[in-house]
Amino acid sequence: MTMSFARNLKCRECGRDYPLDPIHVCEFCFGPLEVFYDYEAMGRAVTRDHIERGPPTMWRYAELLPCNPETAVDIGTGLTPLVRARNLGRLLGLDRLYIKNDCQNPTWSFKDRVVSVATSVAREFEFDTLACASTGNLANSVAAHAARAGMKARVFIPADLEQGKIIGSAIYSPTLVAVDGGYDEVNRLCSEVSDKYPWAFVNINMRPYYAEGSKTLGYEVCEQLGWRAPDHCIVPLASGSLYTKIYKGIKELSWLGLVDWRATRMSGAQAEGCSPIAEAWNRRSFLIKPQKPNTIAKSLAIGNPADGYYALKTMADTNGAAATVTDEEVVEGIQLLAETEGIFAETAGGVVISGLRRLVEDGHVRGDEVVVAFITGAGLKTQEAVLPAIQPPLTIRATLDSFEEALEERDGVLPAARGA
Ligand SMILES: *Cc1c(COP(=O)(O)O)cnc(C)c1O
Ligand SMILES: [Zn+2]
């Protein structure tokens, strides 16, 4: 890894250093390992101008990632739109609300960011097989990146996933394994598989590198705000990794002098049916009680979140908060975002929008803050969730009479005709 400023892995608990190997836990205290960089050297190499002249993808921040940009596996991920959400903002009472629309990635979720980094590193380690334990979106992204990288893919998912996520993986022809159980069972199985087989499990033995990919969401938002950190981020929580890494990304830009330090607040959202992080937050505890998930927000259905503790620490350190929403509110949130801003999000997006609404009502999010809501996955993958709530089409014969009859039946009146 000659081209990278990554220097070693470091235990987040005891601080012990490890070489940049395909490992993820500390041998001494079982703490998780994290990539550590030479920030001084990085700071000399990276300028705003250098980044702005880079490719229109997440790889414009290659120097801040733990892999060699020359050999990175890039399927066009990142630099997704940051949309000023005036309609939704007006409705919620927020003057400066932005939507980070990460639906617009190659496999339609933010997971392409983490998998792009993990795949690149896996190739540097000369693995021939890419694998994952997934709640759905990760499966899509791993299958696609393995195809692009010419690697074998072994993808493990809970058997009860949405059609869109099963097809969205199967199309790339991975070995797709549907496990009878939830994500936590899939993950436990994959830990065993990864002990036995020499595969690059992106979110197990590659996890320290994988997680770094999420930092690019923090970088992009700052760059797109004109090199300014947001005041408040609203992020969906599953394992808690995305949430903590967006914050790491924002902090790094300020360490590197690319944005001014601003005490960015980090708030999270979960569905009530799987809310172990929010539940601990509400108890004012750093101790997560694992839950058995029961929610339509399947992409967030992790009952025993690996980074839950660190998410809670970030929440406390940044004066953030956690919101929970019912499954009904998940659907309402999806509809609200679609109807106000023209963005069709998956269930995780519904969690974020309804969670944001709750945080505004509770007074946690203030009307004058620059707020960024992270929409991490696209709605066509979770159609089952909204199908019962949408208006069915007017079904007619191909005649003007039939059209007007249907319109009148629905609205009671006909719209004004030309020249009337
Ligand atoms: C995986 C996922 C998340 C959150 O993931 P973390 O495990 O918390 O990093 C959020 N949104 C979507 C759509 C996801 O697929
Ligand atoms: Zn340790």
Describe the structure.
- The protein has helices at residues 39-45, 48-52, 86-92, 111-124, 137-149, 163-170, 183-196, 207-212, 215-224, 241-255, 276-282, 308-317, 327-341, 347-361, 383-386, 400-411, and strands spanning 6-11, 17-18, 33-37, 82-84, 96-101, 129-133, 152-158, 175-179, 200-201, 232-236, 265-271, 322-325, 370-375.
- The chain is α/β, with parallel strands linked by helices and 420 residues long.
- It folds into three domains: 6-75 and 111-210, Rossmann fold (3-Layer(aba) Sandwich); 82-108 and 214-388, Rossmann fold, CATH 3.40.50.1100; 393-420, no CATH class.
- Strands 4-5-13-10-11-12 form a six-stranded mixed beta sheet, with helices on both faces.
- A hairpin with a 5-residue loop joins strand 1 and strand 2.
- Zinc ion binds at residues 11, 13-14, 16, 26, 28-29, 31.
- Zinc ion is lined by residues 11, 13-14, 16, 26, 28-29, 31.
Descriptive tags:
alpha/beta, Rossmann fold, binds zinc ion, binds pyridoxal-5'-phosphate, 15% strand, four-stranded parallel sheet, globular, 16 helices, six-stranded mixed sheet, 3 domains, 420 residues
Largest sheet: 6 strands, mixed
What level of helicity do the residues show?
25-40%
Helical segment count: 16
The CATH class of the largest domain: Alpha Beta
Bound molecules: pyridoxal-5'-phosphate, zinc ion
Give the tally of β-strands. Answer: 13
Global mean pLDDT: 96
Report the span from N to C terminus.
Answer: 72 Å
Low-confidence stretches: none
Overall spatial form: globular
- Widest sheet, order of strands: 4-5-13-10-11-12
- Label the structural class: alpha/beta
CATH architecture annotation name of the largest domain: 3-Layer(aba) Sandwich
Name the quaternary structure.
single chain
- The helix-strand sequence is EEEHHEHEHEHEHEHEHHEHEHHEHHEHH
Strand content: 15-25%
Rg over CA atoms: 22 Å
